[in-house]
Fold this protein.
Amino acid sequence: MHTIKKATLILKTLLKMRYYFLFLILLPIVSWSQTFKYLGPEDGLSNRRVYQIEKDAKGYMWFLTRDGVDRYNGKTFKNYKLKDGFEEIQSLHSLNWLMTDSKGTLYEAGKEGRVFKYDNTYDIFKLVYRIPETQSTDLTNVNFSFIDSRNNLWLCTQKKIYLWNTQTKQGKEIHLQFNPNVKCIVPINDNEYFVGTERRIHYAKLANDTLKSIYASFLGNDDIGYPINALYYDTELKKLAIGTTGKGICFIDPTTDFYSKPTFHLSDMNINTIEPYKDNQVLISTNGSGIHILNLKTGIVEPFIVADYERNNNMNGNAIKDIYVDEEDRIWM
């Protein structure tokens, strides 16, 4: 009781001194709550529709919006338009992925097979690579893009995969020994990957510029699979989390459960992204049900951040397109 009275006295004193921010530090002693801060057009954000979030080596936060790419320095926003020559790229249909390489340099890749790099010296985005014009039939079909541990930026189309190295500036085409239509890829190590095609999971190896499927399985039964939208692999637990469109999420041990019928969680939900959090947990963003948290060790899935429309200081929407967890464990949505 003496400790509680003393803590109460300290809080009253701090509040009189107007050090309100300290209350958030002391509050977890007696309870835990989520604190939200909104950044919108009134703060300088170019558009409320935010599709991708990334952070660069200088600590700037970047947001891919319906009206281009926004940079946030902690106080103000700056909007960037991307151009191919004199042509301004239309954000809604052409700007799709933000990512950084091992040096923290920011890149943007789009469905039309173009890659832009943020040039810090001139404070602009420069076009640095495009899928070769001889492969123009693929230009509007890029389904997925990411940068691997060797600084290879992957552009996965419905028919082929192209790699462009951010350090050497060299590009090449990867030959496939299976029907691609790649929707998502997650690395296991430098040359092994789990690949999600339209309705199938592949365990694949990359060697001599060829991606070969070692074994594959439908995500479902033998007659029909479920559309795959996101993958996450925990190298420590050797667990693969698979997010789908319409069926929710499942997680398996690929060494033992690859051909087993998986158990789905968050059924009937559309999964957008699966992001690592802490303590063997991942955050799952959904297209209408907020953010859930999955413990890969225990298999428990729980609501984590969900809209509460009756409270003022709470999240006001459940359609979460992307998540970024920074070094201070702040969750950007």
Notes: The two ends are 40 Å apart (CA to CA).
